[in-house]
Design brief:
The chain is 75% helix and 0% strand. It is built from 13 helices and no strands. It is globular, with a radius of gyration of 19 Å.
């Protein structure tokens, strides 16, 4: 699921920021692993509810004592709600996809998010993309096709949900850019948890399945992982700027593959590994070109 934050660093400590970034995405890998396990036994709506309710409780415990009612004050309330609903939608599609796909497969497809962001930034943000970045985007999407393999009779319908997750994540990140410097990070994070909780709660009674003790503990863990992961992201972005941290988003693939093997006995096939590599390299090249173009514009 999308995890982009726009926070100005207050301490220049890039190594600590990178370490926190890696810890955050390891936490998110554990979150997806827990969600994949839970959706095998409980309705996805209930698992999504556990994820957001736990996050909301954790946000209240950590953020409310320092900020109080100021957490609810937003200069762009509509944009905050839209951003939070986009994240909520991607969580729903991701959790359903996790019922059927390996963790490595959903991660490989999700890595196309920066490519979609670059593509959508042209009509939505008015940005210009040169031929090199267009080439990187095209190659990246070819990598996604290697993972999904449409037309070969091997594509699972849930791969379409993972593609929707990546699209929703891209729209979420673009909306986050529009909020950059408008509201405090604490406010943005609180609305993320609150809106998701309010959106899913009315649906839960229709599909609720009483969990056993293991289910209760794992659902509590799911919410804690969501909240804690976002808190680590905030800390990381306070220590280093986003361009330095962005490439480390891709470190999530390592714990995803490891946890997928340890918990579910899954190993990615050669197509998934090859496609993920192509998407990863394309995304890294896009980040490199974006930094170079911005540096040239400032000089």
């Amino acid at each position: 699921m999308p995890r982009d934050l726009q926070i100005q660093p207050v301490v220049h400590a890039p190594l600590q920021g990178i370490a926190l970034m890696i810890a955050a995405f390891t936490t998110f890998a554990a979150l997806d692993t827990t969600a994949k396990y839970l959706v095998q036994f409980y309705p996805p709506e209930q698992v999504v509810w556990a994820r957001y309710t736990g996050h909301c409780v954790l946000a209240l415990v950590i953020l409310w004592p320092r900020n109080g009612a100021a957490l609810l004050r937003s200069q762009r309330l509509g944009t905050q709600v839209l951003r939070s609903l986009l994240l909520f939608a991607t969580t729903c599609t991701n959790f359903v996809a996790l019922q059927y796909l390996q963790l490595a497969e959903t991660s490989a497809i999700f890595f196309s998010t920066p490519l979609i962001v670059a593509l959508l930034s042209v009509p939505l943000l008015g940005e210009r993309i040169g031929p090199r970045r267009w080439t990187a985007i095209l190659i990246g999407f070819l990598g996604v096709l290697v993972v999904v393999r449409p037309g070969l009779g091997l594509m699972h319908w849930a791969a379409g949900l993972s593609l929707l997750t990546a699209l929703g994540a891209a729209l979420y990140q673009i909306t986050t850019r529009k909020l950059a410097g408008v509201d405090p990070a604490a406010t943005t994070q609180f609305y993320t948890a609150l809106v998701g909780t309010l959106a899913i709660t009315p649906l839960v009674p229709f599909t609720w399945q009483a969990p056993d003790l293991t289910g209760v503990l794992l659902m509590a863990l799911l919410g804690a992982l969501g909240g804690f992961g976002h808190w680590l992201l905030i800390l990381a972005h306070r220590m280093a700027p986003a361009p330095i941290l962005a490439p480390f988003n891709y470190t999530q693939i390592a714990p995803m593959v490891l946890l997928g093997f340890l918990v579910f006995g899954d190993l990615p096939d050669v197509w998934t590994v090859t496609g993920a590599g192509v998407v990863l390299m394309s995304g890294l090249y896009l980040l490199y070109r974006e930094r170079k173009v911005k540096a040239a514009a400032r000089s």
